[in-house]
Each structure stands twice: as structure tokens, then as C-alpha cells.
Design a protein that fits this description.
The complex is a heterodimer of chains A (77) and B (169). Chain A is an alpha+beta fold and 77 residues long. Chain A has helices at 18-26, 45-56; strands spanning 5-11, 35-40, 59-66, 69-75. Chain A is built from two helices and four strands. Classes of the chains: A alpha+beta (77), B alpha/beta (169).
């Protein structure tokens, strides 16, 4: 995969609303157009990350799960 | 900065969230704080208007008794203010319920209402205490935590709520 991740947010173990709150805080210092990777274990985060991206205008480039860890790749608006 | 008009078509029309925090019960203050932090994280202009028992979450934890006259003091004695001292709306069992709830929250990595309140402040959520109920309960600014906005009334709150999603909790 050729995607260049600028920042990884480890949100494993955190429950709602922390994965989203920490993503909103963590993405602040990322330059527009760069990619942020978020790793979470909260199953609710699948719907929450899609909704958050829709609401904020950031692009959800990738959303997947492997071994109980959900991985989201977000392109900053 | 105002977003270009076309962006509003793609995204939800409500970009403001107003929470009227009326309850001071732990199991209602929690969702007040969860929704406020989430709204702010979603980029919504978020305000919490604290009124009646909701004000008690804003009182400093170390403060035992608030109020100026005996009736106001009695209220604080019967229901100790402060985010760390909130009771559950049901299954309180003289404090055993909240202790259990906090233990479960810790085990599940759920942030406490106090932690969420701090995050709300960090995310720029406006915390507005209701002037009238502050007077009614005898609460003074020095009884309350830092980071609060100027106390306001129902009119200011309803004006803020005119173009916002409004929740009464």
C-alpha cells in the first residue's frame, strides 16, 4: 500500500465518546490532505467514525477490522 | 470562519448544539457530558446551559455546603454538590450504586463525567450557568469551577437555541 500515514491514533480500549473526541483533538495539528490512521476496539466506532467524517467533512478513506481492532484511515479536510 | 454554502448541503443542517442540563443525577449528567464533548468533536458550536440541579455539577468538589441562608444550606446538605458527589437517579443505595457505576466505568475505560467536563472545556464547549437558579440556590461564582461563561437567563438560552439541536437532560 502506497498510502503515507502522517499520524496514528491508538484508541484501543477506549469507549464512546473517547475515540471520536480524541480523534477530533488529534487531527487538529495535521495538515489538510494528509492521512491519519485511527485504531480502536469499540465496535460502535464503525458507525461513529463514518458519522463523524460525514459531519466534519473529513474523508473516510478506509474502514476495516482485523483481529478485533478496527482501523480507520481519514484524509483531513 | 463560515463554511461555503455548498458544504451545508452535504452535511447535517444543524451545526449547533444546545444542552439544557437540568438534572444533577449521575446517570443524566453523564450523557450531558458525552453529548457535549461529541457535539464539539463533530465541529458543532456547543453550549451547555446549567439550571436547577444541573448547577450542582459545576460546584467545586471540595465545597461542602453552599448557599447563604439556612434553606439553601439545607439543600446542599441533603444533596452535596460537586461532580464527584452526584447520586444515581435509580439504584443509588446510599452511594453504593454510584460507586459500583464508577468501578464499572473504569473497567470499561469509560471516561468519568468530571474527565468529560474537562474535555468539554478543552474542546471549546461553552458552559453557561443560569443566573436565576444560582440565586435561588445561593450559589456564588467562587463556589463554582473555573472556565464558566457569564451567567445568563432563559432569553439568552432560547436565542442561542433558535437554530440549534436542543436537548433537555
Amino acid at each position: 500500500m502506497s498510502m503515507q500515514i502522517s499520524k496514528t491514533l491508538d484508541l484501543k480500549g477506549l469507549s464512546c465518546p473517547l475515540p471520536i473526541v480524541k480523534t477530533a483533538q488529534g487531527i487538529k495539528d495535521v495538515v489538510s490532505g494528509e492521512l491519519v490512521e485511527a485504531l480502536a476496539t469499540d465496535p460502535g466506532s464503525v458507525a461513529d467514525f463514518a458519522a463523524w467524517c460525514k459531519s466534519t467533512g473529513n474523508e473516510l478513506v478506509e474502514s476495516g477490522e482485523e483481529g478485533g481492532v478496527y482501523r480507520f484511515v481519514i484524509k483531513k479536510k | 470562519m463560515v463554511a461555503p454554502a455548498h458544504e451545508h448541503e452535504e452535511h447535517p443542517s444543524h451545526r449547533k448544539l444546545v444542552i439544557i442540563a437540568w438534572s444533577g443525577e449521575l446517570d443524566k449528567v453523564w450523557p450531558q457530558m458525552i453529548l457535549a464533548t461529541t457535539g464539539a468533536a463533530m465541529g458543532m458550536d456547543t453550549t451547555i446551559f446549567f439550571t436547577f440541579w444541573g448547577l450542582f455539577s459545576l460546584v467545586k468538589n471540595e465545597k461542602h455546603i453552599t448557599g447563604e441562608n439556612w434553606m439553601q444550606k439545607m439543600v446542599a446538605m441533603m444533596d452535596r454538590p460537586g461532580m464527584e458527589h452526584l447520586k444515581l437517579g435509580k439504584m443509588n443505595f446510599v452511594g453504593a450504586g454510584p460507586a459500583m457505576m464508577k468501578k464499572l466505568a473504569k473497567e470499561n475505560n469509560v471516561a468519568s463525567p468530571g474527565e468529560l467536563l474537562q474535555m468539554a472545556v478543552d474542546l471549546g464547549v461553552k458552559l453557561v450557568p443560569c443566573q436565576m437558579t444560582m440565586d435561588l440556590l445561593g450559589l456564588k461564582r467562587e463556589d463554582m469551577i473555573d472556565g464558566l461563561g457569564e451567567p445568563a437567563g432563559a432569553t439568552a438560552m432560547l436565542l442561542e437555541a433558535q437554530d440549534a439541536i436542543t436537548l433537555f437532560i
